[in-house]
What we know:
Elements: E1 13-18, E2 24-29, E3 33-40, E4 45-52, H1 53-62, H2 65-71, H3 79-95
Antiparallel strand pairs: 1-2, 3-4
Amino acid sequence: xSRRCELTGKSAQVGHKVSHSNIKTKRRFLPNLCNVTMIxxxxxxxxxxxxxxxxxxxxxxxxxxxxxxIKAKADELSPKAVDLKRQIEKKLAAAS
Length: 96
């Protein structure tokens, strides 16, 4: 499983560990990922995603999972999240 947020696309970055003597060694900065169950109001069910804690704050700020996915670009989302976005848009279009 790749270390990539399913909502924001945040992934591992590469940098240097710098010692006191200024020796630089390669290291990876991993995103803070957690398995979360979110509620989709439009679909009326729970969705399990692996997201970064930064994405959790963004979802909360935008007003829930549905609002976040509708506003998000499809190229940043994982295939699972893109499928969810399509289902939510389809459900909202049918409701209106």
